[in-house]
Backbone:
């Protein structure tokens, strides 16, 4: 097990390095010139050159990558004289449009995205798994049909439509405090305000995911129900409740956890559509605004990298979790 | 008005009305203004909110702000200039009053030397006095053109410091200190008197000093790029917090004293700018008056304007006036682009101005077709031009038949350009900042061009990089949307920057036009004139010239709207800045 | 009357024959029979087919109706560019009303918009399935080094945040495509979108095919073919491919609505197709600003898109049920 863990860890580190390198190279060869874009209106070639130096883009891409990695560990120093400043480690770069170290921007945005992800994650797992189990247990009955309808609606309703509709309805009926909408409120200082800010985004996201999970849970429960060991358990005279809890769910949930972990990781990088519609200042909105408003390269690079890291790391976590939950994996 | 308001934020310059033109404005335009400053009922205290969709102020650093709104905002609350516009409604608002200085500047040496004497008792937010050295340091910062971007360049252009071959100053600003001695000669301090030595006669230099680029900055507090986040205050408020994308919170600057300030009357205790508001949410707040002490800093979206302005209950919460700007499409007349007069004219006559105006709020809210880069409010310098919209063939909804006629002419006069703009695979490229309204406008433009047999392609550019993209001669398309307002009441701040140099605000690339040299000579001569009426006559001729060359197409004399909550008092339109007189706003008890 | 009865009887007989001679039917016939029995599936197939045809025949339909997707019907708008009349200016000439602001016919916009969406979805699905099929079979059948390398590479691809990459790179890559003169404007944007979708889409399908090809290799019929000295090419085309088709069709039916919605999402976010063209995403993001004064403009396109996605999803379910008996059981 330990050997397996170490091997997986090493592989993960390698993938992260490779992904970061390729993202870095891709962005370095874009036809966008950040030195030109941050030059302002009264732009001259000499300012562009000065900018290029200031942004650290006047050196080959491998040197830039080296500085980037070094900055992650040791922080970075920008500018000279009075106009100089530092971005402490881990430094992802400096956004000249926002006059802030990218790490600060990320640190501000991440709690928002995390709150959004964790809340909707819990919501959709609760709804999805329970609906799925009920549908499987009442196969063919009205409960099953109702959940099928829910699944179809959920799957066919694109998030950007459901999000808009939920937002507009909530606004119409004054369920959102407009001046506070989308502002970050810490759950530790004001848990109610926090929940109130996130409730509609949670519902929007959960709606989309719960449908998939209902369907998935239902078919998994049905499949495991017909397995031999469940029949054996039933023959042993165990009650249906015990069978469901101890055997069926356990086996049926293992693959769900895999997918849930990856979906959660995907959201940690930023739920772009939901954040955009509900105006939540999370990673998703940070990156889409960076793209659409001023093509703020250091920000775009960092959010893309982070999203990749979340996926890769969560893959690792899920694999390990999987080994704990599914007895078959543990034996193997 | 979101779309156009958003782009308005990118217009850099502002306008000052002359007294005469101001009267015109007051009579013709400000009729709709029910609410005006009424200091008698003003009350101190409370929190004043500003709500905006923007993530941040474009710039906060005094040397870098350049939009009328931001200048007015920060000038009213945070930092003081040597001179200021009078904070009052109507034409009087365009007159200069001393602010940090005890006078509005004393010219000598045929206006090549300007002296200002500092008022005693003005302090920074830590209580230390504002010194002549602070003014000198503040003025030196715009020379660091690699860090202090976006601001006006008047000081860099006009101070008596030698220039390099590429036109850049030999002084590189206070960070690099290259050429510091040259600067120390151009700007000198003697006690509390600061002297500016200029490289030319500059009769209205004191108007240029209303820009915060001439405001003092304490050298010890300067942090280069980072100063844009937390400028040091000598005004009635100071920044408590500024978090981009969230809010800016201003609190009273306890070291500021009313005695030292004849311009500002700060009423609210707290001023909060809430950024990044969803446009629909922002508009809902205004429409429902759900936060009565909030001012809509962006203006409503066109779809919501009509509802709000039709509601009699809101009569005292709105303003609809001509703003300082002329909006137009700048034709890139360099070779390989719209280098053919007949083609430019064809596009002009095909243009469906009516539909575009309707889209953006109708003549009631958006504006009227213009015939001039100079707006009517510059009374002395404006005269109706001939041709263009006064041409008998001009139709406000577009005249495709006339356009086709012109195209037929172009087929002979410039076959290559003709072939390009009528080839479905090529066409001409229209540059515009990406916004909801502009995307909608593209539909109308395409339909109008289709009708005339002209092919148009659109280049939507992220708003934050719009001007840096079209300002790049290699990246500019054929026709670029732009807007401009005079910096003060002289067309010297309109014609030369828009047409006479390949400067950062000239998007016509007209220096490659054969018609350019004659124009340039006339413009240079006009700039040097000291006889104001004679100069004005020249500006009128030059405007006519530019219009005849169709360097800019389809100008619109645009309007602007402001909306605020029912508990906001003291609102008036500050003409020279084209926005609120922020300093007199108060929260009703 | 008599004739009708006869027809019904004939159908009855055919049905009976079908049930009795089931053993003689090919898997394809069995699947088709199963599909026909699924009423929801048949209805949704009709609905999806209808919208698909409507999208492809958009130029014909609009011409028949005397409409255009680029003309601005300025007389349908008032001075503030809002549609005159109830429900977003619905009328006999403009059955779904007109677009506020510019005055184009909404039905034409949606027809042309769904044309773009369908094109992107179909091209992307077919291309990524084709690529996935090729790579999946190759790696599954030949295994060895190729398999290891391709497997690692697809794992690597899957660890990229595809949505982020598309958003971040769409704009610069569109400029690049334009600079290379491959396509211009929206053509270039569509090319970029499709290439991205395919680039990030094939690994998932390739994995599925690989595992199936992997297990099929050990099955008797492949062994038999190998024993008979059949070439690899023959085994792949004659033995493996026919057995992998059902998987491909199921995958196609699942991915179509997904890509269709994805195209809408990206244009909604502002990184896909742009005005003056119209797609679902563009129309909807525009409609949000007008929702107070013209809710019909928001609701009609939403419903239109939802019906398409829903019918495609239902159709996908029915196809899967028909092709995969195990799924039916579950």
Residues:
């Amino acid at each position: 097990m330990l050997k397996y863990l170490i091997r997986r860890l090493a592989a993960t580190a390698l993938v992260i390095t490779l992904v970061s390198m390729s993202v870095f190279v891709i962005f370095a060869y874009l036809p966008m010139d950040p030195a030109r874009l941050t030059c302002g209106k009264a732009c001259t070639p000499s300012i562009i050159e000065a900018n290029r130096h200031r942004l650290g883009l006047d050196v080959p891409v491998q040197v830039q990558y080296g500085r980037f990695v070094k900055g992650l560990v040791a922080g970075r120093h920008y500018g000279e004289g009075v106009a100089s400043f530092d971005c402490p480690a881990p430094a992802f770069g400096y956004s000249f449009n926002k006059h802030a170290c990218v790490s600060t921007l990320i640190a501000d945005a991440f709690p928002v995205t995390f709150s959004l992800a964790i809340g909707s994650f819990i919501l959709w797992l609760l709804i999805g798994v329970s609906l799925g189990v009920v549908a499987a247990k009442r196969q063919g009955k009205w409960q099953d049909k109702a959940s099928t309808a829910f699944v179809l609606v959920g799957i066919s309703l694109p998030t950007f439509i459901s999000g808009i509709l939920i937002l507009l309805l909530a606004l119409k009926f004054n369920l959102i405090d407009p001046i506070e909408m989308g502002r970050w409120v810490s759950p530790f200082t004001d848990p109610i305000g926090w929940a109130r800010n996130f409730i509609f985004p949670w519902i929007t996201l959960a709606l989309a995911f719960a449908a998939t999970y209902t369907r998935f849970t239902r078919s998994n429960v049905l499949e495991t129900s017909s397995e031999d060991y469940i029949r054996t358990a039933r023959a042993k005279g165990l009650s249906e409740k015990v069978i469901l809890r101890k055997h069926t769910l356990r086996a049926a949930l293992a693959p769900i956890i895999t997918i849930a972990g990856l979906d959660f990781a995907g959201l940690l990088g930023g739920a772009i559509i939901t954040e955009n519609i509900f105006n939540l200042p999370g990673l998703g909105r940070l990156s889409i605004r960076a793209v659409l408003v001023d093509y703020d390269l250091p920000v775009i690079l960092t959010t893309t990298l982070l999203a990749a890291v979340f996926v890769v790391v969560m893959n690792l976590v899920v694999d390990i979790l999987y080994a704990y939950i599914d007895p078959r994996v543990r034996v193997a | 008005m979101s779309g156009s308001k958003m782009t308005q934020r990118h217009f850099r310059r502002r306008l000052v009305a002359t007294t005469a033109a101001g009267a015109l404005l007051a009579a013709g335009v400000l009729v709709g203004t029910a609410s005006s400053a009424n200091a008698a009922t003003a009350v101190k205290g409370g929190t004043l909110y500003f709500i905006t969709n923007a993530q941040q102020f474009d710039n906060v650093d005094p040397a870098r702000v350049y939009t009328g709104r931001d200048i007015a905002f920060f000038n009213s609350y945070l930092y003081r200039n040597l001179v200021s516009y009078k904070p009052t409604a109507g034409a009087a608002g365009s007159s200069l009053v001393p602010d940090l200085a005890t006078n509005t500047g004393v010219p000598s040496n045929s206006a090549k030397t300007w002296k200002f004497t500092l008022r005693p008792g003005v302090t920074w937010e830590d209580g230390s006095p504002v010194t002549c050295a602070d003014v000198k340091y503040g003025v030196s910062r715009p020379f660091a053109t690699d860090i202090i971007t976006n601001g006006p360049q008047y000081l860099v252009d006009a101070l008596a410091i030698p220039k390099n071959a590429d036109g850049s100053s030999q002084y590189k600003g206070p960070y690099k200190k290259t050429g510091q001695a040259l600067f120390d000669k151009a700007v000198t301090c003697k006690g509390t008197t600061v002297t500016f030595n200029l490289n030319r006669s500059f009769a209205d230099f004191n108007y240029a000093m209303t820009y915060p680029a001439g405001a003092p900055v304490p050298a010890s507090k300067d942090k280069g790029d980072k100063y844009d986040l937390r400028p040091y205050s000598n005004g009635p408020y100071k920044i408590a917090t500024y978090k981009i994308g969230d809010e800016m919170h201003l609190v009273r600057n306890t070291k500021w004293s009313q005695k030292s300030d004849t311009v500002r009357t700060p009423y609210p205790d707290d001023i909060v700018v809430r950024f990044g508001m969803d446009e629909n949410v922002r508009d809902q707040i205004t429409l429902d008056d759900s936060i009565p002490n909030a001012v809509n800093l962006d203006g409503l979206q066109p779809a919501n304007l009509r509802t709000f302005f039709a509601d009699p209950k809101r009569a005292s919460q709105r303003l609809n006036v001509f703003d300082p700007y002329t909006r137009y499409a700048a034709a890139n007349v360099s070779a390989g682009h719209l280098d053919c007069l007949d083609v430019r004219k064809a596009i002009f006559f095909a243009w469906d101005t009516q539909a575009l105006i309707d889209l953006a709020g109708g003549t009631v809210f958006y504006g009227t077709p213009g015939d001039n880069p100079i707006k009517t409010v510059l009374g002395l310098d404006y005269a109706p031009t001939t041709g263009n919209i006064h041409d008998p063939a001009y139709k406000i909804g577009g005249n495709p038949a006339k356009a086709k006629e012109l195209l037929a002419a172009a087929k002979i006069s410039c076959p290559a350009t003709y072939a390009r703009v009528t080839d479905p695979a090529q066409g001409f490229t229209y540059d515009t900042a990406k916004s909801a309204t502009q995307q909608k406008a593209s539909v109308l433009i395409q339909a109008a061009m289709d009708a005339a047999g002209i092919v148009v392609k659109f280049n939507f550019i992220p708003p934050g990089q719009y001007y840096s993209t079209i300002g790049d001669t290699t990246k500019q398309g054929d026709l670029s949307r732009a807007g401009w307002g005079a910096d003060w009441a002289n067309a010297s701040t309109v014609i030369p920057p828009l047409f006479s140099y390949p400067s950062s605000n000239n998007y016509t690339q007209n220096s490659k036009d054969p018609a350019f040299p004659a124009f340039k000579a006339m413009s240079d001569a006009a700039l040097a004139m000291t006889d104001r009426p004679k100069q004005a006559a020249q500006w009128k001729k030059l405007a006519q010239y530019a219009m005849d060359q169709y360097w800019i197409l389809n100008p619109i004399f645009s309007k602007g709207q402001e909306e605020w909550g029912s508990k906001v008092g003291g609102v008036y339109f500050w003409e020279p800045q084209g926005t609120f007189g922020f300093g007199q706003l108060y929260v009703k008890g | 009357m008599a004739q009708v009865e006869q027809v019904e009887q004939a159908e009855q007989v055919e049905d009976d024959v079908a049930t009795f001679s089931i053993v003689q039917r090919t898997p394809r016939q069995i699947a088709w029979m199963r599909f026909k029995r699924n009423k929801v599936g048949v209805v949704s197939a009709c609905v999806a087919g209808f919208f698909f045809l409507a999208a492809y025949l958009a130029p014909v339909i609009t011409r028949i109706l005397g409409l255009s997707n680029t003309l601005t019907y300025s007389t349908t708008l008032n001075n503030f560019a809002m549609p005159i009349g109830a429900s977003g200016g619905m009328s006999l000439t403009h059955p779904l009303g007109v677009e506020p602001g510019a005055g184009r016919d909404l039905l034409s916009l949606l027809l042309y918009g769904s044309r773009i969406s369908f094109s992107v979805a179909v091209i992307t699905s077919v291309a990524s399935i084709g690529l996935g099929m090729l790579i999946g079979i190759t790696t599954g059948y030949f295994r060895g080094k190729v398999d290891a390398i391709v497997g690692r590479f697809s794992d690597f691809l899957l660890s990229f945040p595809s949505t982020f990459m598309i958003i971040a790179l769409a704009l610069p890559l569109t400029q690049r495509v334009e600079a290379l003169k491959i396509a211009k404007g929206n053509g270039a944007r569509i090319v970029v979108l499709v290439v991205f979708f395919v680039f990030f889409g094939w690994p998932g399908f390739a994995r599925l095919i690989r595992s199936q090809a992997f297990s099929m290799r050990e099955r008797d019929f492949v062994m038999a073919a190998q024993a008979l000295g059949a070439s690899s090419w023959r085994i792949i085309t004659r033995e493996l491919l026919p057995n992998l088709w059902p998987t491909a069709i199921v995958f196609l039916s699942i991915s179509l609505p997904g890509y269709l919605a994805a195209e809408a999402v990206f244009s909604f976010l502002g990184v896909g197709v742009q005005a003056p063209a119209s797609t679902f995403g563009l129309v909807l993001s525009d409609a949000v600003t007008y929702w107070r004064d013209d809710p019909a403009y928001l609701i009609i396109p939403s419903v239109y898109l939802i019906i398409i996605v829903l019918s495609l999803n239902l159709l996908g379910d029915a196809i899967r049920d028909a092709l995969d008996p195990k799924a039916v059981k579950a």
